[in-house]
Amino acid sequence: MEKKQLRLAVLILAIVNVLTIVFFLLKPDASRETVATVGNDKITRQEWLNELETRYGEDTLRDLVDKKVIETLASDYDIKVSDSDLEQELTMYKALYGTQGQFSGEEWEEQVKLSLLLEELLTKDAMFPEEDLKEYYHQNRDFYDIQASYHLSQIIVKSFAEADQTVKELEEGSSFAALAMERSRDEFSANYGGDIGFVSENDETVEQTILTAVQDMKPGTWSEPIQLDSGYAVIFLHEKLEGQEYSFEDVKEQIRRQMAIEQMEIPVSAQAFWEEAEVSWFYGNEEEKE
User: Fold this and answer.
1) Which pTM value belongs to this model?
2) Among 2.40.70.10, 3.40.30.10, 3.10.50.40, 3.40.50.2300, what is the CATH number of 148-241?
3) Alpha-carbon distance 92 to 98, whole Å?
4) How far is it between the farthest Cα atoms of the chain?
């Protein structure tokens, strides 16, 4: 399961590179626009783009090629990801690993879907005895018993007066993320607009007063001031996940893929299929670079 978390983290980081390069490449008149000045010297958008391509171009193009390879071969082999399988995977990632809201829901879902398609491609011929699959299920039972979880953002302040003022400003239309970055005493979450990702109902790192308060909240709302051991909190509830206990049949295919991947001696990467997909790219063949 840790390998799955690492793979998804890598895929998410790839989004940043892809979106950054594509966004700037789509801007018109790149060669003439000035993006910075130093005294009388100008730095043009084209110079900037050239530097971005030098630093990130190869990795970004590789990510785009990998995406196309996965989609093409999945179509060739008639491999699909059902809505229920995608929802199950998303729920397990959120509840088990937590995610801070740095990406939109569509971007997150797209990367999880690509990850599932790649797993299916890599393991399409892998078979295991039923008893081995069941043994894996029972050995990793905690992964498939999902506790109720909450995606939260927080603003931590020193006094009730500060917390009460924060609630008033939210009611007047202020941005929760902006207020968190401006005044929250928890520097780590403040850097993410107060976002602390998903926390389970039994999370020992979150004070019980917060966990108790969010149980009766509706997604898209914030709390009244909540007293903590040291200070006060205002909490925003983004999303609530109900507890879910997955049966063996629910996760049987996921276990098959996971067992196969754990036995693989090659990297879990779409590049394993580049030759089959007849990839030709700007940076030449991988073999020529070795």
Assistant:
1) 0.75
2) 3.10.50.40
3) 9
4) 73
